[in-house]
Fold:
Amino acid sequence: MNQNVSNDSQSASEFIDGKLAALGDWRGSALGTVRGLIKEAAPDVIEEVKWMGTPVWSLNGIICTGEIYKAKVKLTFAKGAALSDPAKLFNSGLDGNVRRAIDIHEGEHVNAVAFKELVRAAVAHNAAAKKHKPTRAT
Structure:
């Protein structure tokens, strides 16, 4: 699994492990749970750390980011507006025309089956977009 991180002494996965452990509360647990679901749904996922320490999961493009706030964990799907969400997991960023997000608050749990389907849909969308990307003439 390829991993990128700005700190050469630590892999992205190690950085994320440390970040989750340092939180020591429900937010670390919630992000750790969805991180596991992402890895189950997309075993070849690449973990990265971007934008001031934000965990990012990618495969042929960004699948989603995991942002930690005081009262929520936000999973922002880069191309969420293009994804089918029959289980209605997206509950944030619904007004935008590209991204969609899932906000998890203390005591809430994500439907694991539906979440993994959403991750797989994002991976498929990224693969299709990469396949159909026009090439530049030289």
Notes: The beta strands are 3-4, 46-50, 54-58, 62-68, 73-77, 100-104.
